[in-house]
Request: fold
Amino acid sequence: MRCSQEGAEMLIRVIAIMTMLNVSGVTAVWAEQTPAPRNARLYIIWPSDGAVIRGGKLWVRMGLRNAGVAPKGVEMANVGHHHLLLDTDLPPLDEEIPSDRNHLHFGGGQTEARLEDLSPGKHTIQLLLGDDNHVPHDPPIYSEKITITVPPY
Reply:
């Protein structure tokens, strides 16, 4: 069976496009994460583990040692920005950190945040440092998870 010149060229284009898509997919999987600053430590200054928060409103103060804080989009060695995880576990550590009511982004470089309207009961808080694209460093830098209690109003 003979192919026309036009059909052969079309087949070559399709194969070339499929090859490029396949290569870019592999590249995305193998993309390197931002290296973590050496000896960096992320921690919650306040509240302390076990704190009782009356009224369900509080300021969370975030600490970082041996690294700097910079807004999202600032591509620089040894810096990142805070993400506060509320009532959730760590997300996949090789993907962009989700942005929702349990994963709060502080891409402006904030080091403290106001939480309001926490319902009565136990809540967990943990910090995770993200790079300029909201992806955890390699290795990831995260705080210990603390538990706070909001008594009934």
